[in-house]
C-alpha cells in the first residue's frame, strides 16, 4: 500500500526522524545541482532538497526557498539559515541575482568542499601522528634497549671480563 509508509511516519513508526544528522556539504551541493539541472527553479530546488535533507539545514533551505518565492531579497531570504548553508547561499547568489547557470557554480562549490574536507582529514592525520610519537617512543624505546642492547652489552662485558 502506497500510503502505508506515510501513515506510519505520522503515527511515529518507521518515518525519518526530525533531525537526520548532518549531511556532507558536498553532497548537499550536488543534490541542489541535480535539482536545477533537471529543470527546477532555485526556490523549488531549495524546497525539494530541504525536504529530503531534513533537520536544521533542511528547514533553512525550505525557508529560503519559500521567502524567495514570496519576493524577499536574496539576503533577507537567507537571514535565518544556519551558518553551514552560507556556502549554498554563495554558490546560488549569481544565479538568482544575475541569471547565471546555477549547476556549474554548485558543482564547483561541491568540489571545493570536498577538497577542504580532504585537507582537513590530512591535517588531522598529521596531528594524530605527532601526538602518537611520544607514547609510542616511551613504549618501544625501553623495549628496544632491553631486547636489543642489553644482550649485546652483557655479551661484550662477559667477554672482556672473562677473557
Concise summary:
This protein has 163 residues and is mainly α.
Description:
The chain has 163 residues and is mostly helical. The protein has one domain (4-123). It contains seven helices and no strands. α3 packs antiparallel against α4. The protein is rod-shaped. It starts with a helix and ends with a helix.
Helix share bin: over 70%
* Percent of residues in β-strands: under 5%
Please identify the structural class as seen in this structure: mainly alpha
User: What global shape is seen?
Assistant: rod-shaped
Number of strands: 0
Number of helices: 7
Which segments are poorly predicted (pLDDT under 50) over 5 or more consecutive residues? 1-20
**How is the main sheet built?**
none
Number of domains: 1
Mean pLDDT: 85
Rg of Cα set? 29 Å
- Kindly report how far apart the N and C termini lie: 94 Å
Order of helices and strands: HHHHHHH
Please specify the SSE layout and strand pairing.
Blueprint (H helix, E strand, L loop, with lengths): L3 H7 L14 H13 L4 H12 L1 H15 L4 H4 L8 H13 L3 H61 L1
Provide keyphrases for this structure.
rod-shaped; mainly alpha; 163 residues; disordered N terminus; 77% helix
Amino acid at each position: 500500500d502506497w500510503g502505508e509508509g506515510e501513515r506510519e511516519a505520522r503515527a511515529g513508526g518507521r518515518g525519518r526522524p526530525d533531525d537526520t544528522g548532518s549531511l556532507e556539504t558536498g553532497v548537499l551541493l550536488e543534490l541542489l545541482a541535480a535539482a536545477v539541472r533537471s529543470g527546477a527553479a532555485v526556490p523549488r530546488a531549495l524546497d525539494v532538497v530541504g525536504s529530503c535533507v531534513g533537520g536544521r539545514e533542511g528547514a533553512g533551505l525550505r525557508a529560503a526557498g519559500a521567502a524567495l518565492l514570496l519576493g524577499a531579497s536574496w539576503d533577507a531570504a537567507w537571514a535565518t539559515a544556519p551558518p553551514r548553508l552560507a556556502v549554498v547561499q554563495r554558490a546560488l547568489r549569481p544565479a538568482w541575482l544575475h541569471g547565471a547557470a546555477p549547476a556549474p557554480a554548485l558543482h564547483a562549490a561541491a568540489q571545493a568542499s570536498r577538497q577542504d574536507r580532504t585537507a582537513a582529514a590530512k591535517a588531522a592525520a598529521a596531528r594524530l601522528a605527532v601526538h602518537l610519537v611520544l607514547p609510542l617512543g616511551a613504549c618501544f624505546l625501553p623495549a628496544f634497549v632491553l631486547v636489543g642492547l642489553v644482550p649485546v652489552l652483557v655479551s661484550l662485558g662477559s667477554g672482556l671480563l672473562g677473557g
